[in-house]
Specification:
single chain, binds adenosine-5'-monophosphate-propyl ester, Acetate--CoA ligase, ACAS_N, 7-stranded mixed β-sheet, EC 6.2.1.1, GMP Synthetase, Chain A, domain 3, alpha/beta, 635 residues, globular, ATP-binding
Length: 635
């Protein structure tokens, strides 16, 4: 028997050792015993980080939806698979059983087929957090289409870039979405995006807010009538282990977003196994991850991981502040949530509102608390531990990335003793290491450097859609034969890992990854702007917020700075989305540059952080005089 469910620390160490000494034997046992295969594999793992190439379970055939749905029908048909909690607390929650999910996914899959979608086609899903989002995702997987879910908070331009990059010929959306007291005209955003997407042939529209929208003849179709007509039986497409399951875009430090490609078998095995252990999920638990399915956290730990385990997974449409700041705790109480997984930014925002909002609610159902997306600061960790966990529900500070597909470093609750701000120990099968800037591995404990992974795990992204060279350059070229995460980390005296933050030009704002380049490109589109540079600075709710240094053409003679700030943020909002707006915008005479013309962000970062005691040697800059001016006018 493989150790599918780890229950104590000694067992963790024992299983961990086995998983790194004999990874192939270990993962083969897990795959054999806990999943449904149409055909077993010929080889467990083939890999080479130099090419780079990683293949798990080559030769195997399967369909992930048979693992997420069909195989549960005999034993869990009437169990709630998806528990949908709507934006408005007065509306009823919807309990979608495994039987119902089976039928709805099949109907949706048949609609996609009727629209001409075939195995390998890319389908863009731009849908808010309503059941159709999860169902559309699974429907794609049912017929072997590659889903590309785009977070429904992205702008028309960002959506168009993603649709075009992966050549989606169909877009699934809704008439609009609810967000607290607001409604958002999602279909209008899609219409705008599609003005620059020639390849899109059809748009399927779910009805959510009953708004009056325009439907383009021949292209746009209401979803419901098509679903009503469709059969609720749809044979699952037989997929090869390494067939792509989905593309999900993430920001890079330069250039356009990277379409990370995840494949079928390895992703399934790893997300299911990590879900079971990292959340210690038991049969009757109600599990809730507050992320949006538009991010990897939602893909792996709202949809695939939980459903593969036959779990009940909550999908929440709304926001933590609506109708007031007790909404999360109201939902925990109402649905007796056992595992609660959220981001530090949400914890900080709720902590700021005071414990009154928590105290009104019975949170005794909670057994495990999770944190993901950015480093959790000590204060937020304690608030979460004391007020939500009441000191008895362990916090799993789980570190991972869009690229890793699943949780990589995390305490296992009730197994690994936790330590505030530490992600603690590598998950089973994960071999992290810390490197110095010269490419040497820092062995032993009490070291700090850059976090890499030495050996492949089943859910590592296999490539960047349409650009394998960029995949190689970004992840496998900094350190030979290692996957470079882009994060800094330290290992303490007992071998616990603490993630210290990004070491590249990616800035994590409210748990969302933002690359500086696309934001600077948006700012530079403003006719009055000569050039700009973005850095992050500490923010008590968002973790990091964005600080923009902007040089105006002709020194901005006669321009009103406040108006310019509004216009610049509007441009960013239009090009990327409101999440990328700048908190501070400083107008500068010039930006500090090296003699080769590279902007010295390190200096700008220090000024934004109000830490100018040691700016280093600035005399070698092309234009050292601008540094004093920037410091004098810092915001
Ligand atoms: O910097 C790390 C941070 O989020 C980055 C990955 O972002 P994304 O691909 O959007 O995926 C987020 C959800 C998995 C990482 O490179 N990060 C994620 N989790 C943590 C974290 N930083 C510190 N502690 C964490 N627990």
């Amino acid at each position: 028997m493989s150790n599918y469910h780890i229950k104590h620390l000694e067992e963790y160490y024992q299983v961990y050792r086995k998983s790194v000494r004999n990874p192939e034997i270990f993962w083969e046992e897990i795959a054999e015993e806990h999943f449904l295969w149409r055909k077993k594999w010929d080889t467990v793992l083939e890999w080479d980080f130099a090419t780079p190439e990683v293949k798990w379970f080559q030769g195997a055939q399967l369909n992930i939806t048979e693992n997420c749905i069909d195989r549960h029908l005999a034993t869990r048909g009437d169990k709630t698979a998806i528990l949908f909690e709507p934006n408005n607390p007065d509306d009823d929650a919807e309990h979608i059983t495994y039987n119902q999910l089976y039928r709805r996914v099949n109907q949706f899959a048949n609609v996609l087929k009727e629209q001409g979608v075939k195995k390998g086609d890319r389908v863009c899903i731009y849908v808010p957090m309503i059941p159709e989002l999860a169902i559309a995702t699974l429907a794609c997987a049912r017929i072997g289409a590659i889903h590309s879910v785009v977070f429904a908070g992205f702008s028309a331009t960002a959506l168009a870039t993603r649709i075009n990059d992966s050549d989606c010929k169909i877009v699934i959306t809704s008439d609009g979405s609810y967000r607290g007291a607001k409604t958002i005209d999602l279909k209008g955003i899609v219409d705008e995006a599609l003005e620059s997407c020639d390849g899109v042939e059809s748009v399927l529209v779910a009805k959510r807010i009953n708004s009056d929208i325009t439907m383009k003849e021949g292209r746009d179709k209401w979803l419901q009538p098509l679903l009503d007509e469709a059969s609720n039986q749809c044979k699952a497409e037989v997929m090869n282990a390494e067939d792509p399951l989905f593309i999900l875009y993430t920001s890079g430090s330069t250039g356009k977003p990277k379409g990370m490609v995840h494949t079928t078998a390895g992703y399934m095995v790893y997300t299911a196994y990590t879900f079971k252990n990292a959340f210690q999920y038991r049969e009757n638990d109600v599990y809730w991850c507050t992320a949006d399915i538009g991010w990897i956290t939602g893909h792996s730990y709202i949809v695939y991981g939980p459903l593969c385990n036959g779990a009940t997974t909550v999908m929440f449409e709304g926001v933590p502040s609506y109708p007031d700041y007790s909404r999360f705790w109201d939902i925990v109480e109402k649905h007796k949530v056992s595992q609660f997984y959220t981001a530090p930014t949400a914890i900080r925002a709720l902590a700021k509102q005071g414990v009154e909002f928590v105290e009104k609610h019975d949170l005794s159902s909670l057994k495990v608390l999770g944190s993901v997306g950015e480093p959790i600061n000590e204060e937020a960790w304690h608030w979460y531990n004391d007020n939500i966990g009441k000191g008895k529900s362990p916090i799993i500070d789980s570190w991972w990335q869009t690229e890793t597909g699943g949780i990589m470093i995390t305490p296992i609750p009730y197994v690994t003793p936790t330590k505030p701000t530490y992600a603690t120990l590598p998950f089973i099968g994960i071999q992290p290491c810390i490197m110095d800037e010269d490419g040497q591995e820092l062995k032993g404990n009490q070291v700090e450097g850059r976090l890499c992974i030495k050996f492949p795990w089943p859910s590592i992204a296999r490539t960047i859609w349409g650009n394998h060279q960029r995949y190689k350059d970004t992840y496998f070229s900094t350190y030979e034969n290692k996957y470079f995460t882009g994060d800094g980390a330290l290992r303490d005296e007992v071998g616990y890992y603490r993630i210290t933050g990004r070491v590249d030009d990616v800035i994590i704002v409210s748990g969302h990854n933002l690359g500086t380049a696309p934001i600077e490109d948006a700012i530079n589109e403003h006719p009055a702007v000569a050039e700009s540079a973005i850095v992050g600075f500490p923010h008590d709710i968002k973790g990091s917020a964005l600080y923009g240094y902007v040089t105006l053409k002709d020194s901005g003679e006669g321009r009103n700075h406040d108006n310019l700030r509004i216009e610049i943020n509007q441009l960013i909002s239009d090009r990327i989305g409101p999440i990328a707006k700048l908190n501070k915008i400083q107008f500068t005479e010039g930006l500090p540059k090296t003699r080769s013309g590279k902007i010295m962000r390190r200096i700008l970062r220090k000024i934004a952080e109000k830490d100018t005691s040691n700016l280093g040697d600035i005399s070698t800059l092309l234009n050292p005089e601008c540094v004093q001016d920037i410091m004098d006018n810092a915001l």
